[in-house]
Amino acid sequence: MAKEGETIRVDKELDLSNAGRGVWLVKVPKYIANKWEKAPGNIEVGKLKISKQVGQKAQVSLTLSDAVINIDPAEEIPRDHRLDVSVVTKQTLGVFSHAITTTRDDPVPECEKQYMEGRIVQKLECRPYADNCYMKMKLESIRKASQPARQVKSLEKIVHNYKPVSDHKHNIEDRERKKAEGKKSRDDKNAVLDMLFHAFEKHQYYNIKDLVRITRQPISYLKEILKEVCDYNMKNPHKNMWELKKEYRHYKEDDKKDDDATKDTMSDSDSD
Q1: Residue 79: which of 91, 67, 92, 96 has the closest Cα?
Q2: pLDDT in tens, 52-67
Q3: Which domains does the chain have, with CATH numbers?
Q4: Omega before 218 cis (within 30°)?
């Protein structure tokens, strides 16, 4: 096969040197196909016998080899089969193959070429004889097919089933956090105002998250109080931050300069 990064050159010319060869298309039962798939490539899988009498249609039979029969001794299958032959007249069917070859002179190490192996001239269907072996095999297949896919069993010990996680940890924590916030008790309005005025004595500007953390009040209740005593800045340099209304301010000039020097360290995002 080609190495990683290399491409396989495909020869688009179809090799027709075997186009005139006649081939058979044979349909075999599934139990034979399964045996042949398990068989190694160096053994004989069966023998084909063709007998023809004058004025009669050719009789074709298949006998499986002992090596195939003994691949799985526990699974008994018929050894002898007949092949019903039908001639292909109204169809043009062919068998094609492709092979990957390596050439020394080609800079690309591998080349894929397509071949026509022949034209299908006859169809054959492999059928077993209705002997005891075949009837036993069919009876066993019917018995297996009649068994329910699910069966009731009595348990002697506890069975631990590990099911997929239906809800992730971070979703549960987020719901619990929102639930806890929703249950925050509302303090008296005057007490909340005292906390706000005390906070604004330290800094002139706050975002809503910091005020919720300081007052520990529900955000909707806190915004109702803020609208009474504060202004919400919609423009830079203090966008999305709250400050006391002019009638409630009593900052000194030096304190205001100090507050302006520290405003860049505070978050300017608001969940309003």
Answers
A1: 67
A2: 888 888 889 999 999 8
A3: 12-131 (no CATH), 183-246 (1.10.10.10)
A4: no
